[in-house]
Specification:
The protein is of the alpha/beta class. It has 24 helices and 17 strands. Bound molecules: 2-phosphoglycolic acid.
């Protein structure tokens, strides 16, 4: 595994760990907004500020907290807004770690409530969990961009809005109805009596006795195992619990009749018939909008012989008030406030139990109506346990939330992938074009040879100058003229558009070489190029590879760029020796150059049999040998230099055959003899690059 893969794996593992924790933690809180509100209340109580904060504020905080956690988790899962989300998660966990350290040390609440009632951790376990999450949060915060996106940036808003709507709806619905998933020991189907039982063999609480004894005025503490002899006088003893025993899920459930104080817990739980329990931790704050319905249910119970009690933690005064405003005729009993809040998250809420088992639970907003009470419970649907509602709810969540997001992700990823493939193809093409354009210059160079007197030459150069100033050519243009023209043409030629070059230079630096023109002299005219190695010079003036090597070196020394010609004769072509010939010409004159100097060379392949004869190499023939030449350069100087070298074709190149020749990948332009002597002909060839 490479280092990069390992890094990405670790970061994404941290991301999923955080995402799942936040989603779970947010969701279990959201399905029980009142439970979360009570937990916030516990914290405020521990800080002694509960009485200053109104309930509505703690309820809003509960919904905001659960929504925030859930959204952060989902955003992290999808890698949405990676920078900001990872920062918020880091800050969130930092705050939580500090709080949980306080809880672990000071023990103000017994359960932090991180996962609502779904998963209970001890305070130290919670702190350790937060330390692990903190490490993960630091990792993703440092490398947010390593989190692989599950959804493109342009579609993130869909997930963001959908998630916010979903979790706020879940909170609101759970608040209106009851927690959609009930993790408490009083869930539907639970038998309260069973929940209170201590199974045989369960861990017993352990106690330790200490005895304080005195002898000769000295007091000392003893345990049972070192209890002293009778010379010591017993003074006092202490009993301390040293370990907790098994605590049953329901351990504080009891019902006392208001007034008599009689404990009727066992009567109610042992009753084989139906019992309705109207649960209201505080009658003072209970919702009284459904009073009539509650009274109707109570009457229905009287008519059908079912029991109906109101369990509350409120005192007699509040009960009297409730009785007077509602006309309640049912009995009131007292139960612990926290127990009542745990039983049902609604004030008031209604519970139907049979033989101690909870059969139905209703919030005051969703109480059963008259129709449902038309028959005795024994024959009615509400008298039986509802069908497995948990699976149904999970399915609904999958159908309404998970599935749409999965479909969206799938569509988005397919779209992103096809776009990526297209872009890659496009950028590859652009890259190739740019590379070709940038690295390898396209050139059309004219070689006037021994034509044109000074005036005609100047006139032609002027015409070309005007033509290409008016209409910029699509390639580099060079004119290589006899020596006598150079200085005059250099005066007016716009060399940004048309480069100027000589057709030859001497193989000596300077001195007594009558009739010769040195590279330095060429340069001094204002020219930038020189043609060397032309076949006419090789054959008519016996320029050997060694002489040409000298010339090339001198040209380069004088900052002239060289158009170096190579090419085979007719006989050599017929003997299929063209590759060997061009290779030898390169080896003989330019392949000793440094790569840096070689970069200043333009190669012109000119089959001698095609020069001025009207015969042209076919584009395939030309391409074949151009490719071979490029290979030779690659072998000598490497692929990059080969790719960057301009290789021109020369030999009866005209406007009519130039497009086909120039279309070949290894032909980068032409060295033009006859057709460069008329502006229109020359332009026709140059225009081939526009096609
Ligand atoms: P040509 O000459 O175009 O007249 O064939 C080419 C050359 O010699 O450079």
């Amino acid at each position: 595994m490479t280092k990069k893969v390992l890094k990405y794996s670790v970061i994404n593992l941290c991301r999923f760990m955080l995402a799942i924790t936040f989603i779970l933690s947010g969701f279990v809180k959201a399905v029980d907004p009142l439970g979360t509100q009570y937990k916030i209340g516990d914290y405020l109580e521990a800080l002694h500020i509960a009485s200053y904060i109104p309930d509505i504020l703690t309820l809003i905080s509960s919904i905001l907290l659960s929504s925030l956690e859930f959204c952060l988790g989902v955003f992290m899962l999808f890698a949405i807004r990676r920078h900001i989300v990872s920062k918020i998660i880091f800050v969130f966990i930092s705050i939580m770690t500090v709080i949980t350290l306080w809880i672990a040390i000071a023990n103000p609440v017994s359960d932090c409530g991180c996962f609502g009632d779904a998963i209970k951790l001890t305070n130290w376990e919670t702190f350790i969990k937060n330390i692990i999450l903190m490490a993960a949060a630091v990792t993703v915060w440092k490398y947010p961009l390593c989190m692989v996106r599950f959804i493109s940036k342009s579609n993130q808003w869909i997930v963001i809005n959908y998630t916010i709507i979903f979790i706020v709806f879940i909170s609101g619905y759970s608040l209106y109805d009851l927690p959609q998933f009930d993790f408490r020991p009083y869930h539907i189907g639970a038998n309260i009596k069973k929940g209170m039982e201590i199974p045989p063999g369960a861990k017993q609480p352990k106690f330790e006795n200490t005895f304080i004894m005195e002898k000769n005025g000295v007091r000392k503490e003893f345990k049972l195992d070192n209890y002293p002899d009778s010379t010591w006088k017993f003074i006092d003893s202490k009993t301390v619990q040293i370990s907790e025993g098994y605590i049953p899920p329901i351990h504080d459930f009891s019902i006392q009749k208001v007034g008599s104080g009689e404990d009727i817990t066992n009567n109610i739980l042992g009753d084989k018939g139906y019992t309705f329990l109207l649960i209201s931790p505080h009658l003072e704050t209970a919702d009284d909008s459904q009073l009539d319905q509650i009274n109707q249910i109570s009457e229905y119970c009287t008519d059908n012989g079912y029991k109906f009690y109101c369990l509350t933690a409120s005192t007699g005064k509040a009960i009297n008030r409730w009785q007077s405003i509602t006309g309640a005729e049912y009995s009131f009993c007292n139960t612990d406030e926290t127990t009542l809040k745990t039983i049902i998250r609604s004030n008031p809420g209604l519970l139907l139990i049979k033989a101690g088992t909870i059969i139905r639970k209703w919030s005051h907003n969703t109480l059963p109506d008259e129709k449902q009470f038309s028959k005795p419970l024994e024959h009615s649907e509400i008298g039986t346990m509802p069908k497995d509602s948990v699976t149904g709810k999970i399915l609904k969540i999958i159908l309404w939330y998970v599935l749409p997001l999965m479909v969206l992700t799938l569509a988005d990823r397919t779209w992103a992938w096809s776009r990526w493939v297209k872009n890659k193809e496009k950028s590859n093409k652009i890259y190739q074009l740019l590379k070709r354009k940038k690295m390898r210059k396209k050139i059309v160079a004219g070689n006037w040879k021994m034509n044109m007197n000074l005036q005609d030459g100047i006139a032609l150069a002027k015409e070309l100058n005007d033509t290409f100033t008016a209409e910029k050519p699509n390639c580099g243009v060079i004119i290589c003229t006899p020596f006598i023209h150079l200085a005059s043409i250099a005066q007016f030629l716009n060399q940004d558009i048309i480069g100027l070059g000589a057709e030859n230079c001497a193989d000596k630096v300077k001195g007594a070489y009558t009739g010769e023109v040195s590279a330095e002299m060429v340069k001094s005219t204002g020219a930038q190029y020189v043609v060397l190695g032309h076949s006419e010079r090789r054959s008519y003036y016996n320029e050997t590879p060694a002489i040409l090597k000298e010339k090339v070196q001198l040209a380069l020394d004088n900052n002239l760029k060289v158009i170096f010609c190579i090419g085979e004769s007719k006989e050599e072509r017929e003997a299929n020796r063209q590759n060997e010939v061009v290779k030898a010409e390169l080896d003989g004159s330019v392949f000793d150059l440094s790569a840096e100097d070689f970069a200043k060379i333009v190669i012109a392949y000119e089959p001698i049999w095609a020069i001025g004869t009207g015969l042209t190499a076919t584009s395939d023939q030309a391409e074949e040998i151009h490719a071979y030449i490029r290979n030779c350069i690659a072998d000598k100087y490497g692929k990059q230099v080969a790719e960057d070298t301009t290789i021109l074709y020369g030999g009866s190149c005209k406007a009519s055959n130039a497009p086909e020749l120039f279309a070949k990948p290894d032909i980068d332009g032409g060295l033009i003899g006859g057709a460069s002597l008329k502006a229109a002909d020359f332009k026709g060839i140059i225009d081939a690059w526009k096609k």
